[in-house]
Amino acid sequence: MSLERFINQAVSSWMSEDGPDSDIVLSSRIRLARNLLEFEFPTVASRDSSEAIINAVEERTISGIVPEFGPLELHKVDEIQPLQKRVLVEKHLISPHLAEHSMHGAFLLSENEEISIMINEEDHIRIQCLFPGLQLTECLKVANEVDDWLEEKLNYAFDEQYGYLTSCPTNVGTGLRASVMMHLPGLVITRQMNRILPAINQLGLVVRGIYGEGSEAQGNIFQISNQTTLGKSEEDIVEDLKGVVSQLISQERSAREALAKTLNIQLEDRVFRSYGILENSRIIETKEAASCLSDVRLGIDMGYIKNLSRSILNELMILTQPGFLQQYAGGPLRPDERDIRRAALIRERIRMETNQ
Fold this sequence. Notes:
Radius of gyration: 21 Å
Strand order of the largest sheet: 2-3-4-5-6-1-9-11-10
Number of domains: 2
Order of helices and strands: HHEHEEHHEEEHEEEHHEEHHHHHH
Number of helices: 14
Distance between the termini: 19 Å
Helix content: 40-55%
CATH class of the largest domain: Alpha Beta
Largest sheet: 9 strands, antiparallel
CATH superfamily of the largest domain: Glutamine synthetase/guanido kinase, catalytic domain
Shape: globular
Number of strands: 11
């Protein structure tokens, strides 16, 4: 399969499309956790109970059509190959927990991959909406519409005092996790992130790597999300997160302007050295690729590099992950083989872009 065809089949809209403030905000995500009143939580549910939950959700979505958002397709986790599950995780369409620990899980996925409904993850239902750029309000609107559509025939576990009941107490209340993925090289290079991170935590938010809890912030990409789900409305949670994100956007742009004024030639040299590595390397590890891709994306945003599109970072940070590399190769690869394949894929992707 050609790389162009592979990318057309593999890349989700949030990777390839621009959105508001997409020079810094790669994506916005809303996730709603819900449970059904008549069933045990997934953490203690039997196989029969888990299957009954899947059937209950499938009956509600039997037409496969979410009003205004098109068809959804149901997939059972135990019917998917391990490599395919890994790719879905790398695309942020299902969680690592669903892929690795849910033997009787399933998920519904929209055609454009903006809507994902996970079944029997940590909770019975987790509705996820993923949009490019800073679109938290728009994500929340869609997630709530999907939620209302499901609730018409499903009996949610809800308490008048505590709100939606969830497997983990930290999700009780709204059951809402709002998050944005941000590219913040200016703040990292100017060494401001170490000062900013504790301040963000004090505001009730958490900063993680690209794949959430326990993941490393490679390539200067950080995922920022709320921690509080109880005692605030969904709208307030989203507005609080948007306020902090807006401040980070402003600070990142200021950091980039300062770098351009004081260290312009050094920054330009750094960008083109990384560009040279990506364009010419025959072997490259994940961490080095992420660092170089971050530099090149910064160079594109600041006008140093004019022959590449901004979306190349969004695409390549996913396409160069182990699952995608092996899918493109057509089978399992050893770590050293993945490093060779990663370098070749990056070189070919850059050639595709520059030859247009």
